[in-house]
């Protein structure tokens, strides 16, 4: 079976990998000249289904719980240290609100916070630990999926626009926001991030700092780097990070730990995430293509499950379309009288014999 996947973001790479693992001949095409020119490259990489339940539908929580195992089986560097949620003392009520809207957590005090993250000792008096969550570095993960796809025989072609591909072969469209003309109900949700480097702060797990107006997450990376993210702006404007967003994110990081005030800013980037009105992804067949889109802020969390679902659909459709000797014989045997098949070795039983006998008896 030959399948073309369009779009080398997290959805496209996950779908292509799932198909190749099942034996499909996969060609992945991407209009950009190299890996990384999409919103997936800027993601936080948090595999945090329970935390997302604070604002996401229950389906996101349920489906996302399998993501950490899927990623851990395929890419290096998946961390299973959980997620820590804290709030400044003046906003301590936010902890209770967050706890009431989520599951999978344990309430902890200042001593436990200090034990989990020594650099936060004395700064926060209560919090939540979501022990079954984890995180990864999206750039490492996407690069590893690309290499895994190639190792499974997949072909990757950069600098190719897949919008006008013929429908003669199976095409799975995972272009995200770029597919908005084919999926007019998509809307753009702008996300901004800042990457900093400091040797003055060490964290083992993502930390979410709750705030009534601008919640923040800080995700540790290798070599003293941290990804700071927060914004979900209802806008399809790409552009650069705005001054207001930069000030808010950096102020919040400083509130988490003052040493972030001396950190080196090494990247500030923004891009547009695709979202449907209910903020849940969909698999949809239109105009001869199968679309996998609408991941909103849950790309790395939900892409594995939707990739496997898309692969199920492709292989199920392929099985229905392929000629099958056993099915043909069962359907037509009653009216054919005696059927003379080519001779075969006695020790090589027909794979259809039992099935045909049962069907004819019925």
What would you note in describing this structure?
The protein has 362 residues and is α/β, with parallel strands linked by helices. It has eleven helices and 16 strands. The longest helix has 23 residues. The strands form three sheets. It has an eight-stranded mixed β-sheet with strand order 5-6-4-11-12-13-10-14. It has two domains: 172 residues, 3-Layer(bba) Sandwich (FAD/NAD(P)-binding domain); 138 residues, D-Amino Acid Oxidase, Chain A, domain 2 (2-Layer Sandwich), CATH 3.30.9. The two termini are 33 Å apart.
CATH architectural grouping of the largest domain: 3-Layer(bba) Sandwich
Total strands: 16
* Largest sheet composition: 8 strands, mixed
Mean pLDDT value:
89
Low-confidence stretches: 325-332
Number of structural units classed as domains? 2
Computed CA radius of gyration, to the nearest angstrom: 25 Å
CATH topology of the largest domain: FAD/NAD(P)-binding domain
The CATH class of the largest domain, by name, is Alpha Beta
Total helical segments: 11
Outline? elongated
C-alpha end-to-end distance:
33 Å
* Spatial order of strands in the largest sheet: 5-6-4-11-12-13-10-14
Helix content: 25-40%
Beta percentage is: 15-25%
Decide which structural class fits the backbone.
Answer: alpha/beta
